[in-house]
Design goal:
The protein is of the alpha/beta class. The protein has 13 helices and 22 strands.
Length: 450
């Protein structure tokens, strides 16, 4: 009927045909509609990405939701941030985005929202149980279509961005959903734009649609150098994550992009708090403090961070993974199209090359995000055991999300991925040799429990 394994921490995601089919989406729509109705809510806006199965799955979800009495507005093939924008603009109670984000083409999934808040974690497990118990409400909802929300979205961003000179930028859409939007918005603001892989294609024929992985940015890096452009922007499959390449073709880590945005934010918002996830560099946290801001380390995960922002009233947050959340001059959700525009605003304020923006920071040596395969059923237990061992040995451990172990000259992190069967690690230190020492120490403990 429905496979429980597709109900992950932040969304629903699985392999088409093996783990998800039209029947799955019919039941998800029916279950979500039932939950909406129980809360006294009624309206859902739905959209989907360019994957080949998305239209069929969208229609199946709609059928299920309508049978519970919910009214559904279909906005068609859009980027995830456009769907979020539609929830706000159309004053909808809830939203559903049929997407597998940056996963390979054989996957699909579904991101659910109540208002602009993610519907995740325990809520998704409640949805699964409701479907398994078949405790659906019944009714007869209405279906409508909206073809204007994309234009309204682009107009909204165009009006709320101030790019002071014609920046030269290359946009790699990864054949995902960001390509139809970002180049057009930038051209409206006077930028010189070269497009790469900006046509949505569910096969992702040119490279995997994840701009945080260096091998996926090779074509963009080469193109920026060859064209002598100022930067390149890469977007993921559903356009809620971004990657930046400087004028030398060097990729910025997500925390470096966040650091540059944070400096600009604090210049006009002195003393404000910024949330960053546990995978981010010490340089980022130190830089926020040095510029008068308050740095808050928090759990990885877009849903976790959006919830925390709302709870404590923070306007700006981000993750190593390229999610950037701006409630400063914007609506607070992760939108790689808008965040790219904010980054290009900064580029337009100066003639300094992007490669020099963080040149004043101490040199630290760090790894990218590293993955070790570990079964979903075991990964959290492995992390708990490693964390307990470090604590027992009186190390400085932050356990808000796995274990981030801090030393006088560096740190190491182990956490369980909430989306894939892997352990996530990252290491940083003042020298490369020390970074490798910390890595060996942490991996030695991990290997005892694998």
């Amino acid at each position: 009927m429905i496979k429980s394994g597709v109900f992950r921490e932040y969304d629903i995601r699985g392999i088409v045909g093996e783990e998800l089919n039209a029947e799955s989406y019919y039941l998800i729509g029916k279950g979500f509609g039932t939950i909406i109705q129980a809360k006294g809510l009624k309206t859902i806006v739905i959209g989907g990405d360019a994957r080949h199965s998305t239209r069929e799955f969208t229609d199946a979800f709609i059928k299920g939701a309508l049978e519970t009495g919910c009214d559904v507005t279909d906005v068609g093939m859009v980027a995830t941030p456009v769907l979020y924008f539609a929830i706000w603009k159309l004053k909808q109670d809830a939203g559903a985005m049929i997407t597998a984000s940056h996963n390979p083409s054989q996957y699909n999934g579904c991101k659910l929202n109540l208002g602009l808040a993610s519907f995740y974690a325990e809520s998704l497990q409640e949805l699964l149980k409701l479907i398994q118990d078949e405790k659906f409400t019944s009714g007869k909802g209405t279906l409508s279509h909206n073809d204007s929300i994309e234009a309204e979205y682009m107009d909204y961003i165009t009006e709320n961005i101030d790019i002071q000179r014609p920046v030269k930028v290359i946009v790699d859409g990864g054949n995902g959903m960001g390509g139809p939007y970002l180049p057009e918005i930038l051209r409206r603001k006077g930028c010189e734009v070269i497009e790469m892989y900006c046509d949505p294609d569910g096969d992702f024929p040119n490279h995997h649609p994840d701009p945080t992985v260096e091998k996926n940015m090779v074509d963009l890096s080469r193109a920026v150098v060859e064209a002598e452009y100022e930067l390149g922007v890469g977007l993921d499959g559903d356009a809620d994550r971004l990657g930046i390449v400087d004028e030398k073709g060097k990729m910025l880590f997500g925390d470096q992009t966040l650091n540059i945005l944070a400096r600009d934010y604090l210049a006009t918002n002195p003393g404000k708090s910024i949330i960053a996830d546990v995978k981010c560099s010490k340089n980022l946290y130190d830089d926020i403090k040095a510029r008068g801001g308050k740095a808050i380390m928090y759990k990885t995960g877009h849903a976790n961070i959006k919830m925390r922002m709302k709870e404590i009233g923070v306007e700006f947050a981000g993750e190593m993974s390229g999610h950037v959340f701006l409630a400063d001059r914007y609506l607070g959700f992760d939108d790689a199209i808008y965040a790219s525009c904010r980054f290009i605003e900064i580029v337009a304020k100066t003639e300094m090359p992007v490669s020099q923006y963080l040149a004043d920071q101490p040199k630290l040596y760090n790894t990218p995000e590293l993955h070790t395969k570990c079964e979903d059923s075991r990964k959290f237990d492995v992390v708990d055991k490693v964390c307990a061992e470090f604590k027992a040995e009186n190390y400085d451990v932050n356990d808000i999300d796995g274990a981030r172990i801090t030393f006088a000259d560096g740190w190491g992190l182990i956490r369980a991925s909430n989306t894939t069967p892997v352990l996530v690690t990252r290491y940083e230190a003042t020298t490369k040799a020390r970074m490798l020492e910390i890595q060996a120490l942490v991996e030695g403990k991990i290997n005892k429990y694998l």
